[in-house]
Amino acid sequence: MLQLGSIPISMPVVQAALSGYSDWPMRALAREMGAPYTIAEVVIDTFVTSLKERSRTKHHLLVTEADHPVGAQLMGADPETFPAAAVRLVQAGFDVIDINFGCPAKKASGRCRGGYHLGQPETAIRILQLVRDAVPPQIPVTLKMRRGIDDSERSREQVFQILQAAFEYGIAGVTLHGRTVEQKYVGPSRWEFLKQVRREFPGKTLLGSGDLFTAVDCVRMLRETGVNGVTAARGAIGNPWIFQQAAALLRGEPLPEAPDVHQQRDVLRRHMELAEFALPAEQCLRQVRKFCIFYSAWHPEFLQVRQAFATAGTVEAWNGVLSRWYGENRPGCFPKNPGNLSLESSGKEEVVRPQEALLIPQDSQSA
């Protein structure tokens, strides 16, 4: 069992924060499929404090009874603006406040946010202190960070300075990503870094991140690094089955078979239902289609299904894809290269390249 402060987490594989992806529909579906804890997509502190009670934006702070425990991830530049945002997130119903010192996107580091703070430990520590003091003591505050700005000795020293201060100030857990900020999403995640931090802080709660594309990866990281938990990020997009699969492996059972075509269809329909409940009508199709490249990888006719989803411009057309490609039940298949999926689409739809773009905050949500 994983423990974040006073909050017990029943299984050590949880849903990570993913900018542009881990919205309420994705998190709600992950919970239904076995995720014991989820974290909302990162939001900028000033965005949170300026957010109005409008139908178009209320989903950013949506928390339902079935969501608990759920975390909110916060990012910003000025330490003094963090506390008010953290308090508002607690008032919205989030159980955990997670501070982001890991995002490597230019929109973050170029504006002195996210991973940028790893290079200015005094500011980073001040943020941790202010947030911990601002929220009620029963609300755990956690931290997401990378291996460092780069691989220099100075960067390593700064990271361990932040870690030491974080635990001294009562941070309940730290999620460690094995890449540097300079790496972004290119190159392997060094799990050895997680083992080093485990040795330095043997009694503290550590979670691992980086290159967790399958349930097997999640369990392997737990066993190889000694972390208390792992956060499924890109590996959980279009793959809510990862939590059930990881739970089975942790019980010593064989890896479950890939979901068959009808099981995939049912999850796709459920994802759309949840989106229609939470999101403005004009956003539903576009948001769900972002996931379809990943869902389609489980289908035996992956390339044709991916293209069909890419060209489905209306909800009716999207339902037509389900009728045509998911009507007849067939065995599913595990994605052949889950860490390297891409969607080459036409028109105004953005090209989705997970290795480069999946975690970059969207202006509408984090600016």
What does this protein look like?
With 367 residues, this protein is α/β, with parallel strands linked by helices. The protein has 2 domains: 2-250, Alpha-Beta Barrel (TIM Barrel), CATH 3.20.20; 261-366, no CATH class. Helix content is 41%, strand content 12%. It has 15 helices and 11 strands. Strands 3, 4, 5, 6, 7, 8, 9, 10 and 11 form a 9-stranded parallel sheet that branches. β5, α2 (45-50) and β6 (70-75) form a beta-alpha-beta unit. α5 (121-134) runs parallel beside α6.
List keywords for this structure.
single chain; 367 residues; alpha/beta; TIM Barrel; 2 domains; 9-stranded parallel β-sheet; 15 helices; 12% strand; disordered C terminus
User: Roughly how much helix do the residues carry, as a percent range?
Assistant: 40-55%
The backbone outline, from C-alpha atoms, is globular
Provide mean pLDDT, rounded: 88
The SS-based structural class is: alpha/beta
Radius of gyration: 20 Å
| Beta-strand residue percentage | 5-15%
CATH architecture of the largest domain: Alpha-Beta Barrel
Compute the number of strand runs. 11
Oligomer: single chain
Number of self-contained structural domains? 2
Main β-sheet, in a few words?
9 strands, parallel
Low-confidence stretches: 342-367
CATH class of the largest domain: Alpha Beta
Task: Please work out how many helical segments DSSP would assign.
Answer: 15
Distance between the termini: 36 Å
**CATH H-level superfamily title of the largest domain:** Aldolase class I
CATH fold label of the largest domain: TIM Barrel
Give me the strand/helix succession: EEEHEEHEHEHHEHEHEHEHHHHHHH
